[in-house]
Amino acid sequence: MDSKDNFLSKLKSYILSINDEYLIGVTNKGIFNRASKDLNSGAVVKITVEEASIKCELPDGNVCSINEDIQAFKCSCPSRSICKHTVMSYIYVKQHMEEIFKGDSTLKEISNEEKKVSQKQEGFLPDYSELLNINLKSIKTALGDREFGNLVKRMEFGLKADIKEGALLQVEFDGEETVKFISVKGEEKKDISIKDSSIVNNSLCSCKSKELCRHKAEAVIHYGLYKGTIKKEEVIALINKDRVISKEALESCIKEVRKTLEEIYFTGLARIPESFLDKLEQVAIICHSGDIPSMEKKIRALQGKLKLYINKNASFSVEGFRYLLQRIYILTMAMENCSDEKTLGELMGEHKSSYYEIPPIELTAVGASKWTTESGYEGTTFYFTAEGFNRWFAYTLSRNSSYDKKSSYNREACPWGVAYDIESFSKAKIKLINGKVNGDFRLSSSESSKGEVIGVTDILNIYLKDKTFSLWKDLFSSVSKNYRLYFNEREENDDLFLIKPTKFGESSFDKIQQLFKMPLYDEEEECISIKVKYSSHNKKLIEKLERMERMKNYPFMFLAKVYLGETGLKAVPITAYYKDGTLVNLTI
Amino acid sequence: MENNEGLRNVIYDIEGLLDGFLLSGVSVIGDSTLREVNRVAVSCDKLGLKEGASMLFKLEESLKRKRHTLNFDVDEVVKSIAVLGSYVSLVKGKMKGI
C-alpha cells in the first residue's frame, strides 16, 4: 500500500463520517447554505487526486485542496477560516465518492466491511471516547497551575455545561463560550495527553483560539463528568497533589517564627522598638516564600496589631494580641507534629485572593454597611445572595480617607457600570455578566464585569439557608460552631445572619461605658442584645435604632453581625427589613 | 454557682498573669510575680483544673530556674505560656457553653 492509497483510505473514512450538521458546526449555516446552493445550481468541480490531498477546481476559478483534516484546508481565496469553497469541495467529494475512490485498491478488499461502516455512518455514529481517555494530569500541565486552579474553582462554583452529542459534540457553558468537538478517528490508547488528542486539536472554541484554551480543557473535563468517567473529587485533588511540602523549608520557617515570638516575650511589649514592625514584615515574607499563607496572614495581623500599640491607638487590646500570639505558636506546634500531608496542607492554608471568572449570575442585594478602619480607610460593603448558593457574596467600595476628611464617597459610582446611587444599589437585583469572584466570595470590580439591574429585592422573601434564624438557641449553636474552629480559617462573613425577633425590649444607654443596648426576644422568650458602642461612626446607627423604638416601627428582620460575648450573643444590626417591603440600611 | 464564680476569678487571674508576661517580658520576673503564679496554681488545683495547675507549676519552675542559669531557654517558657493561654481559651469556651 503506497502513501496515496493510505491517504485515500483515511479520507474515505473521514468523508463517510461527516454530514451536513457537521459542516454547519465547523462553519455556520450561512456558508453551508451558500455552498449547497452553488453546488446544486449545476456547478462542476474538477477533481485531481494528489499525494496527500484532493485538489478541487471550482467554477469561480478558485482552487481548494482538502484532506482528512478539515482544518488543514488550502484555498486560493483570501478567507482565513473555512470558506464556502472548502465546504463545496467536501460536499462534492461526498456526493461523488464512488467515482473518486474507485481506484482505491485497499477499499475494494475491505469493501464489505466498509459497506457496513458506511451503513453505520448513514446514521452517523460519532465516537468521542478519546476525550474520556485524556489524562487529567496532562490537562493541568498544559494549562498551568493557575489556570487549572481557576478551572477547578469554576467547577466548584457550579459552572453548568450544556452538552449535546450529535454529529458534533457541543459543550456550551451557560452564557459563555461554546466548544465544538469533531469526531476524528484518533488514538484508542488509554491515558493520552491532551496535547496529543486529535479530537481536542481539531476542536473549535467560540473564543477563536486555535491552541488549547481554558474552555477546551474545561469542556473535556465536563464531558468526563457528564459521562461519569471523572469524579469532581479527582479533579479537586489534583490541585493539592503537586504541592511539594519541603520539610526543611517548613522547619526553617517555624524556627524563624518562634524566634520572633520569643523575642516579643523576652523583651516585653512595653519595651519593643518600632523597628520590630520591619522584623515582622521580614518574617511574613519568609512565610510567603515558604508557601505558608495561613502563617503569613497571622504574622501580618500581628504586625497590624503591634502598629496600633506603637501608635497608642485605643482599639488595641493586650488580650487580642496575646490570643493571636498563642494561636501562632500552637499552629507552629501543630505543623511540626503533623505527619499527614493532607492535614499539613490544610494547616498551611492557601492563597485565596485570586479572582476567577464566573458564569452569569443573578445577585440579590440585601443591604449595605458603612465602615471605617483604624488605618484610615472607609467604605461600604454590599451584601448579596444568589440562588443556589448558601453563602453571602460581598462587594466592597473603599477609599483612604486620611487625606480627605470631607467624605464624598456616597456619591461614588456603583460597580459594573450600574448607574445607581449606593442606597438604590443596596436593594437591587442585578444580573452580573463576566463577573469575577475570589475564594471568599468577594466580588471584583473588574472592568470586564457588566451589571444589569433586573429588578428590586423582594424583601419579604429574603432567605439564606443556615443563616436565617428566628430561634436564638439555633442561632447560638450556629455562632458557636464558628468559634470552635481554631486553626482552619473561618469563612468570610460567617458572623453575618438574618435574625427575626418576635419582640423588642426597652433600649438603654450606659453612660459610663457609652454602650447602647436593646434586647431582642424570640418566641421562646430567649434574649439576645443589640450592643453598639457609641462613636462618631456608630452615631447614625444608634439614632436610627432609637427612632425605631420611639415610633414603635419595628422591623420583622435584621441583617446583623452576631458575636459571642461574655454574657451571651450580641448583635450589631446592619439592615432592617419591614413588612411593607422597605429596607433601611442602618449604618448609611 | 459559687464554684463558677471562683473559676471565673481564677481564669481572670491566669489571664492577668499572661498579659503581664507579655507586657513586661519574661526577662525580668520579680518575686511577687512568682508568688502570684504559685498562688494561682494552688487555686487551680483546688478547683479541679489539674492540667492548668501543673502547667502553672511548671512555668513557675522554669522562671525560677532563669535566675540561676546563663542559658535561659525562652522557647520552653513561651511554649508553656502559649499552651496555657490556649487552655484558658478552651475553659472560657466551655464556660460560654460552646
What would you note in describing this structure?
The complex is a heterodimer of chains A (588) and B (98). Chain A contains 21 helices and 24 strands. Chain A has 588 residues and is an alpha+beta fold. In chain A, strands 16, 17, 18, 19, 20, 21, 22, 23 and 24 form a 9-stranded mixed beta sheet that branches. In chain A, strands 12-11-10-13-15 form a 5-stranded antiparallel beta sheet. In chain A, strands 1-2-3-4 form a 4-stranded antiparallel beta sheet, with helices on one face. The radius of gyration of chain A is 32 Å and the shape is elongated. Chain B has 4 helices and no strands. Chain B has one domain (2-96). Chain B is elongated, with a radius of gyration of 14 Å. Helices cover 82% and strands 0% of the residues of chain B. In chain B, helix 1 (2-24) runs antiparallel to helix 2 (31-47), helix 1 runs antiparallel to helix 4 (74-96) and helix 3 packs antiparallel against helix 4 (74-96). Classes of the chains: A alpha+beta (588), B mainly alpha (98). The interface between A and B is medium-sized, with 28 and 26 residues.
